[in-house]
Amino acid sequence: MKKRVTAVLWVLALMGGGGVGTSSVSAAGAPKVYVGLFKDDAVAVIDTAQNKVLSSIPVPKGPHGLVVTPDGRKVYVSSDGASTVSVIDTATDRVVRSIDVGANPHGLAVSSDGSRVLVLGWGSNRALVIDTATDRVIGEVPVAHGTGARGSWPPSSRARPRSSG
After folding, report:
1. Domain-wise residue ranges, the chain
2. Which is nearest to 132 in space by CA: 80, 45, 61, 72?
3. CATH for 2-154, among 2.30.30.100, 3.90.650.10, 1.10.1760.20, 2.130.10.10?
4. Contacts from 82-87 at CB under 8 Å and sequence distance 24+?
5. What percentage of residues in the chain have a pLDDT greater than 70?
6. What is the pLDDT of residues 13-25, one digit of tens each?
7. Rounded to a whole number, what is the distance in angstroms from the first to the last CA of the chain?
């Protein structure tokens, strides 16, 4: 695991701190980065001031998507080998809830106000909406097969599909 995390740290440094499968939180101390470790079934918590792994949080098989709420209080993690999304409390760096979302949760996106998380299932034609105050599924949105979600939601006007007519 240490070699994979070290490689991720170098990539993050080269990219200026961001990257796919990573999310950062600035808490009372130094900013932390959360990195999904797909092969280790864990999320690494990294202190960015020291470039040091603080801890490893066990999550279900194959963590894939990670998003952080805008207030930095929670990290949502989808795992390809499970039917759940894990919720990590960034104050304790522990999983505080597991939300059943159906087979193969894959893409995640968080609303700009942090009140909702959108979850897509791989091969599914629906997205589920999680209320971040209760960490419960509150709705479903039909989507086209093969749609993926990353980053914030709703998308900016630049990312919206345009009419050809």
Report:
1. 2-154
2. 72
3. 2.130.10.10
4. 84/60, 85/117, 85/119, 85/130, 86/59, 86/60, 87/135
5. 68
6. 333 333 334 455 5
7. 51
